[in-house]
Amino acid sequence: MALLEVNDLKTHFFTREGVVQAVDGISFAVEKGKTLGIVGESGCGKSVTALSIMGLIPKPPAKIVDGEVLFDGRDLTKLNEHEMQKVRGNNVAMIFQDPMTSLNPTLKIGTQITETIRTHTEMSKQDARKRAVELLEEVGIPRAAERLDDYPHRFSGGMRQRVMIAIALSCSPRLLIADEPTTALDVTIQAQILDLLDELRQEHEMAMILITHDMGVVAEVCDDVVIMYAGQIVEQASGFELFEKPEHPYTEALLGALPQLEGDEREIRQSRLTAIPGRPPDLVNPPQACRFAARCPYATYEDSCTEVEPQLREIRPGHWVRTAHPTSERSGERETVNA
Amino acid sequence: MSSETPASNGALLSVTDLEKHFPIRKGVLVERTVGAVKAVDGVSFEVAEGETLGLVGESGSGKSTTGYCILQLMKPTSGSIQFMGKELTSLGREELRRMRREMQIVFQDPYASLDPRMTVGGIVAEPLEVHGIGTRKSRSETVRRLLDIVGFNPNFTNRYPHEFSGGQRQRIGVARALALNPKLIVCDEPVSALDVSIQAQILNLLKDLQRDFGLTYLFISHDLAVVRTMSDRIAVMNQGKLVEIGTAEQVYHEPKDEYTKALFAAVPVPDPQRQRERKAERARLRQEARSSGNGSL
Questions:
Q1: What are A84-103's pLDDT values in tens digits?
Q2: What pLDDT, on a 0 to 100 scale, did the predictor assign at position B194?
Q3: The A4-15 sheet, strands edge to edge
Q4: Is A261's CB within 8 Å of B228's CB?
Q5: Within an 8 Å CB–CB cutoff, is residue A78 touching chain B?
Q6: Which of residues 253-272 of A touch B (CB under 8 A)?
Q7: Residue of B nearest to A244 (CA)
Q8: Angle value at C-alpha B250, between B244 and B253, nearest 5 degrees
Q9: How far apart are the C-alpha atoms of B220 and B217, rounded to whole Å?
Q10: Are the C-beta atoms of residues B222 and B141 closer than 8 Å to each other?
Q11: Taking 80 as the threshold, does the pLDDT of residue B10 lie above it?
């Protein structure tokens, strides 16, 4: 059994403008010690997914209207706040994008770490402090013992994210959810943080969900990848498979939209980036058809996918896609025509 | 794009020994200067007409400050900035105002750089009004034409910026920068607030505009892949200094400077197989840096 299993999760926001179907029936699993990447652009529902798992969505206006989040077989959506608090930190921890705002600026770093430890364990103050020093050392903060008495503003962005990771690790969680953990950081610091997360994951056999918009980060870190679009999963596969044989027109377009770092100079200068025209649909009244149809280069008016929503289907073992026009079948069509 | 060779008497823009220091002050009642942050510390480069020079670096490297100094939005501490044959640092107010028509800027954040109380039409027309160009009627025609060029529906001139998405807003920002038909546009992280699919739209637009209007870009960004797509030549900044400059090909394929190497190695590429190799390379460089005593990398 997978460590975490999300089944048909629907998180909707009940607003004055209507019901925003931010997360609309998504399912995935994360195995022990593995990393799952959730990728998508702003507003696709990737962060709401994470917050739903953590029980941190703002209620109201948000509500989990359907589905289950099974952690070790226990449905987290059924827990009350008190029970959920025990799960958070202890079993599942989360780090956020902005290390500048997720630490309390008026409390010393040491206080913030020991607080977390003592909330979840019976440790004495002294022991908690010792543990805090160990944690800061583990995440690579030099002179850890001295730095416990510093306030957050004395730390750089990268160092603050290390502190956040130390806090997240303080109760040895079995699942770490990282929501854009390196987006606010410089690339050289990003590389350090990604290396650190990977080391920690291996050492602690921790599973990880990495939420990001950066395909490069996904390629580096993730065993499995989920691509989200307009509140739904549109493609799901192993990392190697997804980058080698993307099937969904959206995934294809996302990869084509990325400027190349490596490769032939002339090719790079002459090629145009694939821009995706238009923008994602309004999630108050999402189309009954394929949500990507309006921007899809392959959907035509007479197509069924402009009227009926395609279901997620397994196009190759372990590779799921929600489209009427997967890449492999398109080239297949063309080949039959040519023959 | 850069097929036109620069005139023999020099480049469109040439920056020599540019320095911008910010004083560090101490004391509450009696302030005294105790030191200086050398944000830009002796930077020199040239940009030829019709060319794109990419300026890359991490936060705090001084790349944006360099851009602001060139546009005289900040007064440099010392150094020379020659633009279209004139020394900008010694121009009087009126002369500078006239030169400003030739150099414009596109800012990073299309959410913060457009006045929320002005209509789209008003924002794009403002530079024309400030410089007293055209009549009210001709200006409104110009605005419609500019919006059309940047792919923004000209019928929306009476709407306000908040009604539009980030990509659309950045188009408004580009139209405003184009309004005075400038020679040089400083693009300061123009796509870093945008999603990739929208980012591609704006980058393609900037390329098209350069081809159609012979624009010269100073393209400032922290994103090395973006800079590579856009630039003929690339300059790398680190801690206020320009550590490397060369053609895109040279800088990306045979970086000489250690910092440049580390910077490139740190960027993850969207290819798991290749990224494994790059990760190993990154570890090797870090090991080297450590053994040579340069721990900062």
A1: 988 887 889 998 887 677 88
A2: 86
A3: A18-30, A4-15, A62-71, A74-75
A4: yes
A5: no
A6: 253-262, 265, 268-269, 272
A7: B271
A8: 110
A9: 9
A10: no
A11: no
Question: Which residues of chain A lie closer than 8 angstroms to B266, CB-CB?
Answer: 187-188, 190-191
Instruction: Provide the number of CB pairs (under 8 Å) joining chain A to chain B.
Output: 118
Please give the radius of gyration of chain B, using alpha carbons only, rounded to the nearest integer: 21
Whole-angstrom distance, CA of residue A24 vs CA of residue A49 = 10
What is the pLDDT at residue B297?
Answer: 45
What distance in Å separates residue B54's CA from the closest CA in chain A?
13
A32/A207 Cα distance (integer angstroms): 5
The torsion region of residue A149 among left (phi > 0), alpha (psi -120 to 50) and beta comes to: alpha
Condensed to tens digits (0 to 9), the pLDDT of residues B226-274 reads 999 999 999 999 999 999 999 988 999 899 999 999 999 999 999 999 9
**Cα separation of B156 and B146, whole Å?**
13
Cβ atoms of A141 and A159 within 8 Å: the answer is yes
Within 10 A of A202 (CB to CB), how many other CB atoms are there?
10
Q: Are the beta carbons of A280 and A307 closer than 8 angstroms?
A: no
Query: Which of A258, A271, A276, A292 best tests the B interface by mutation, with the highest count of B CBs <10 A?
Result: A258
Q: What is the rounded distance in angstroms from the CA atom of residue A117 to the CA atom of residue A131?
A: 8
Chain B: residue whose CA lies nearest to A268: B229
DSSP states along A27-63: EEEE-TT-EEEEE--TTSSHHHHHHHHHT-S-TTTEE
Output the DSSP codes for A217-263.
HHHHH-SEEEEEETTEEEEEEEHHHHHHS--SHHHHHHHHHSPPSSS
Phi, psi for residue A262 in degrees, rounded to 5: -110, 170
Residues of chain A with pLDDT under 70: 99, 331-339
> Do residues A299 and A293 make contact, with C-beta atoms less than 8 angstroms apart?
yes
Left (φ > 0), alpha (ψ -120 to 50) or beta: where does A322 sit?
A: beta
Of the candidate ranges A68-77, B24-33, B207-216, the one whose mean pLDDT is the lowest: B24-33
Q: Please give the helix or strand (H or E) that residue A119 lies within, else none.
A: helix A109-120
User: Considering only CA atoms, which of A47, A29, A30, A55 is closest in space to residue A174?
Assistant: A30
Do residues B6 and B12 touch, judged by C-beta distance below 8 A?
yes
Which residues on chain A are in Cβ contact (under 8 Å) with B262? 188
What is the spatial distance between Cα B127 and Cα B132, in angstroms, rounded to a whole number?
Answer: 8
Q: Which residues of chain B does A253 touch, with a Cβ-Cβ cutoff of 8 Å?
A: 197
Query: Of all helices (H) and strands (E), which one includes residue A211?
Result: strand A207-212
Residue to mutate among B59, B191, B196, with most A CBs inside 10 A, is: B196
* C-alpha torsion sign, points A138, A141, A146, A147: negative
